[in-house]
Design brief:
The chain is mainly α. The chain contains 16 helices and three strands. It is 62% helix and 3% strand.
Amino acid sequence: MNAVTTTVPKAVTTTTGKRRLLALTAAWLATRALMLWLLAHNAAPRLGGGSVAREVWHLYHDWYGILVHGAFPAHDPLWQYPPGAGPVLLSPALLPGLTYFQAFVVLTLAADAAITLALAIAGNRPGRTLLGAAMWVGGLPLLLHVPLARYDVQVTAFAVISLLTLPRSTRAGGVFAALGALVKVWPALVLLGTPRGRTTRSAWAWAAVTGAGSLAVLAALFANPFDFLRQQGGRGVQIESLGGTALALATHAGWSGQVRYQYGAMEFTGPHVRTVAHVCLALTAVAFALLLLWRLRARRWTPATPYDAALSAVLLFTVTSRVISPQYMIWLLGLAAVCLTSRHTVQRPVAALVLAATALSTVAYPLFYSQVIACTWPGCALMLARNGLLAAAAVLSLIRLWRSTRPAPVAAAPAREPGPVAHRLPEHSGA
């Protein structure tokens, strides 16, 4: 009787788990088919007029033609990426039967599938949840077809796999974080929340060795590996950033600045733009200081603390950045999904805010980007709402992270009650 009682719940759990995985697979296939359809029909003006796909078949393909000859695009103001981006942009050569654009999209879908699989495996373990995988599967299509025409999905795959492998292998966690940081710098932040001691020493050491070794190899194979630093330093204030929102509102108060295409984005030019850019950099420094202070004062780690810290760090650096492109939301979706795989996470409300901000990002780009560029009142309101959600998410994320790692309050010892009077011996004056 006891055996039947214990085996039935396991069978039910197994059946429920399989159904959920099948539903997750069906949802992934359906949503990605829709994203592919949108990408194939992106000539419609209301869906971006083809500009989304042009990033791959024009810009990336042009860089590919330079990279195959053993050099990074020197003196190109649009090349603002670390050397690790080179192999990613060369990877479509692995599928010679397809055009560059087709191969790039196939590899992006493969990275997307790898993220989904990693989240599903992690979420299917005891004490975990598939909510993270569901968020990724359902959240990425909120950006329509944009993720398929950017290589941020590949970068996010490095960060997600780094975090999910960290509990089982600090070496693998460090290696994947370093590889991601070589492609786009932000994945280095995912190791911020590793527990003190051996875990941190191992993960950080392997990340440093992998990063240095890979960078040396890339520098030996390609010319001009560090030219991106000069182009990155010259960037201004993008119209979709928090600083850009302030400048867009300033145009309605008589500010004489203009929007211009430069450094691969629509940026503001005019008086006080450099000041706003410097303020953004100062806020990034403040964010880094706050994260460092959190790291020094944190006393309690849960299984979800590394995940929560990664999301908080990337949120803070995104919000204070001079550039908040729509594809940045891919990073936040991936990290929020990792948090939701753990029942110990404190970032569930933050994940909800990230989803809302992602939906608004799509309304801004590509649907109503002309309004944002023109700094109309609807465009300003749209960006104010999106960036307000991101700012709120960043602040809330740090607060919840900070509180979750404070020392547990010590329970006060209960006061000792005096013994019953009846049990005391009576005092006698006589013999």
